[in-house]
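Run: sequence + protoporphyrin IX containing FE -> complex structure.
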Amino acid sequence: MTHAPAPAFSLPTSDADPFAAEHLAQPEPLHQQLRQAGPVVHLTRYNVYALARYREVHAALVDWQTFQSAAGVGLANFRHEKPWQPPSLLLEADPPHHDAPRRVLREILAPPALRQLRATWQTVAEELVDTVLADRGRQFDAFTDLASAFPLRVFPDAVGLGPEGRDNLLPYGNMALNAFGPANDLVKADADRAAELSAWVNAQCAREALSEDGFGSRIWAAADRGDLTHTQAPLVVRSLLTAGVGTTVHGLAATLYAFATHPDQWQRLCERPELARVAFDEAVRWQSPVQTFFRTATTDVTIAGALIPEGTKILMFLGAANRDPARWLDADRFDLTRDPSGHVGFGMGIHQCVGQHVARLEAEALLTALARRVERIELTEPRRHLNNTLRSWAALPVTVRPA
Ligand code: HEM
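>> structure
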């Protein structure tokens, strides 16, 4: 990547709409086309530049000086367009503004700070799996009964939310992640509830709404210490509610889907439950629950001979990078013997997911609880839910064989 003027060069173009239903439902064919077309492809429909190869996606993610987030990580360019809600102080900020909120959340969500949650989450996971097997028997919906139910039970408690209105969390997350795409039918479908859901989420971010010992109150305590301002605190709490629920629900669903379609890998996990964490990361690589994010060029920049003009949007296909055959051997295979580290499913660089340890702890609890009780998972008719950013599920009906 250089900042030198571009030589004469024919830039590959594509008129595909990555946010069209067919590509959201099954993104791999488009990903393959984009990777094969070249290191940079001009998407004419939106006048944005697409990066789909691992090498370029990784390089752009770690170069925040050239590829900024503060102009929005969706299609909307905050230099010209008004954001639909006040921008995130983490996801949609560049240094130096990004530094303090990031430092505060990094500490609150770091592995040592999460240690005290481990035993409780494991107990909740064991009870949940027991209840599902007792109440539903061998057939249930692994999306609703496990992948959604578990995070929705433990995460709002960990943040310190009250008991009312928690059913707003998934629709709010769905809406926020749709909003990174174009104003298509998915965004229009959310419009009716947008004001109501935002009002509810914003109300939960107030100090009085939060219990005394959760992530939320620790964010407010950081403001009391002067590590953040009191105006910033509620927006940092909001980041947890926007980025921490749907991502994990669909990440867990991706993992259960991976195992249901790869019985040999499930057997391996049952024999060696200590592989749960690496299995979750491999599922995040293989399915990429967060499929895409944008950046904005802060200067004219040349990538592999292609000039990207200052101020234009760059669409990074995390999902395509995570299956790039130039980086991953047998990239399309879900494989517990692989080392998935280096995948960009949690991003990379200064914005790399600050909640990834929370997600891994949830996954470890649920997978080990399930592996102790179930020796085989068979999928019947899975149904996708479409979202502009999240690779999502509507249903994962399974039949299981108890261990
Ligand atoms: C950032 C994915 C779970 C909070 C990110 C980014 C990705 C991501 C790709 C980078 C965005 C960028 O570079 O622009 C995921 C996935 C998850 C997950 C796949 C689950 C499987 C969580 C959880 C939390 C969380 C549980 C909260 C506890 C955040 C926040 C950011 C972020 C606040 C912004 C960080 C920054 O900009 O500095 N996540 N995430 N995420 N994530 Fe996650």
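>> summary
Residues 69, 73, 90-91, 102, 105, 109, 239-240, 243-244, 247-248, 251, 284, 289-290, 293, 318, 345-347, 351, 353-355, 358-359 surround protoporphyrin IX containing FE (CB under 6 Å). The mean pLDDT is 97.
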